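Why do we bother with holo predictions? Because pocket geometry can differ from the apo form. Keep that in mind while you read this record for glutamic acid.
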Amino acid sequence: MKRFARLNTLSVLLLAASLATGVAHAQLAPSASAAPTQAGAPSEARKANIVIIGTGGTIAGAGAAATNTAAYQSAVVPVDKIIASVPEIAKIANVKGEQVFQIGSESFNNERLLKLGKRVSELLRQPDVDGIVITHGTDTIEETAYFLNLTLKSDKPVVVVGSMRPGTALGADGALNLYDAVLVASSPESRGKGTLAVLNDEIHTGRDVTKTNTFKVETFRSPFGPLGYVVEGRTLYFRLPARPHTMQTEWDIDKLDKLPEVAVVYAYGNVNPASVDAAVKNGAKAIVYAATGNGSVGDYMVEPLKAARAKGVQIVRASRTGGGVVIRNAEQPDDKYDWLVTDDQLPQKARILMALALTKTNDTKELQKILWKY
Ligand code: GLU
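The structure, written out:
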């Protein structure tokens, strides 16, 4: 792998010009001479070494015209080109790019998740690496962030970042998001806060962050608010993650070689019980039932779910509402059926947590404790 090189602004600009990526962005970064020195802003004296891992997504996307803000091809621009298109980054950190995938994030699966996590872990072990930024499609960024938050064994900052508009679009958000992500990954204040997601001037914990809109740049939300902001080259934290992460969890990415199959079955009026049977037939070890409301289960769905449990498949009641906790033994007698409930995890996040939990135990009491803990 390339060694860290101090990128000189002129060479980066020349490189950017010669690459002719067509990626444009506003000059929003403070100049080196005006770089702030308050807490949260890296100074010249302590420029961090940051590896930027490229995995694809819209931040690596390109559209046919500048007015294509929502219709374009994702995962086409190599990570080194993306980095070269934001020369301001060289003023705040020593960066090097590494392309791990070039995919839309909807194509992440367990194998790719494990591969990414193991590479991140390997890099974090290198003494000359201070932090990692992962460019990622926004569709499943929340799943990757939660997974890394639960499995990485390091206090060094790891930041996932994406964009809602390709670099070719009017009002492209990727350049500033990437700059901000490097800033956050370089900040000593970001250490020990778990995997972070940086988009649209906000810093979110990987546990909570979720995509809530198909095209708007303010799509990322955490139900209890972001941890902080990035503004004018400064990282400003206001909250801390309350749930255990990274060093405090029972999982270690280096020791994970396979994740058990966990299916999500989405509930709706007239949901077909065959979807439960299909999950069981496909080898699911657990079914996260994205139920209505407070985890309510239609009368005709109770028996199929009980039958799946009788075959050894764990049943987790979650909610499709997008918020709130699912109350144990409220809508359904979980104790009697030996079912589980999520805490406030969205179904797709509960899927990640259950897969990890099942690598430790198949005991429902223990599994419930894990669902309530993380
Ligand atoms: N579907 C693509 C992905 O998640 C593009 C969406 C995006 O990155 O915003 O990678």
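The chain is about 30% helix and 20% strand.
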